[in-house]
Amino acid sequence: MNYKTPKGTKDILPSDSYIWQYVEDKAKTVFNNANYKEIRTPIFETTELFTRGVGDSTDIVNKEMYTFVQKERSLTLRPENTAGVVRAFIENGMHRYPSPVKLWYKGPMFRYERPQAGRQRQFHQLGVELFGIENASADAEVIQIAMKLLDELGLKNLSLEINNIGCPKCRNAYKESIKEAVSSRLLEFCTDCHLRFEKNPLRMLDCKNDKCKELFASTEIESVINSEFICEDCVKHFSELQEYLKVLNIDYKINKRLVRGLDYYNRTVFEITSTNLGAQNAVCGGGRYDPLVEMLGGPHTPAVGWAFGMERVISLLPALEEKPLDLFLVTNNTKKAFELAEKFRKQGISCDFDLANRKFQKQIEKASKCGAKFAVILGEDEISSGVMTLKNMQTGDQQKLPSFEDVIKAVSSPV
User: Fold this and answer.
1) Which of 18, 120, 175, 224 is the least crowded, having the fewest Cβ atoms under 10 Å away?
2) Both 254 and 372 in a single domain?
């Protein structure tokens, strides 16, 4: 029987894993420089965490979760990580830490949906969460971190869209306005929007159905979307965010249709999109979720964050070359090869040798296939005389060097 990866999953092979490591290394540098600390949460959580935190009107909860029952307890593979991070924040008493608490994470997520470009059923997200700051300065910082990371990765043709979807105090009136505007034509909307109409009509704005998009573009409904509904406090928060973005020289545009796909968002929502993707053009998305910590049993704690899909980001990266192997040891003395390889590796020189102890010519060919910059040749003459022959694999030039230190110098600073 031939076993294959389940539909919607992919192996990350050595020919690609260096690209993933590149993204992760860049992220660690950007996060560390801004004092964000890594958090690692379980891949599965209690199902109630997601139905409560993500929202039972979302497609994620209604259609996409991988849920199983273990000893009469319902568990779910995480479809996103904000709810899990909030659970860890509460459970471990992190709300008692000095504010702000800055966290970042990476790892696999799971959603049952049709596989498409940049999105699989097992996909990987990298994100940040910032707890404890109500001011729009926190929103601006997480957006700045996202833009900084994507710029460091060399991504082009990106644009930032922002919106303020209000707070519970002012959003209810907006929901009722949407319901009133669409009620006469509700039957023309998709079945998913019928459910959203009852549970959270704001989520109808996030519908990907082309017919629903056309309906929302109609004059009557569009006028409701473009009306100013948010309260004075939310207006002030949104104005402050825009001022911070201008100070940071971050270009943006306001998209009043932007609501994001999760129920826990309030006030600021944002997306970073790319013209290099298809219809699903979002690279990074996030926003503020001030009610969530309290909803999940913790004290009221303002919070804001974002996540991006690593598969999508990697699909947009410019061509990258894998870092070559520094040197390959060519010798039939396997014990000597083990000894020298360890010495080179301790000096930070990447090094390999032929465990099969094949003929010299085969080893030279393997050194070339490995992409090694240099080969150190140790035949009987070299071993008996205590010298090493260093071959530049690019030019073919060879030189005899009298000591290990000379080889280190030549490999570290090639002429």
Assistant:
1) 18
2) no
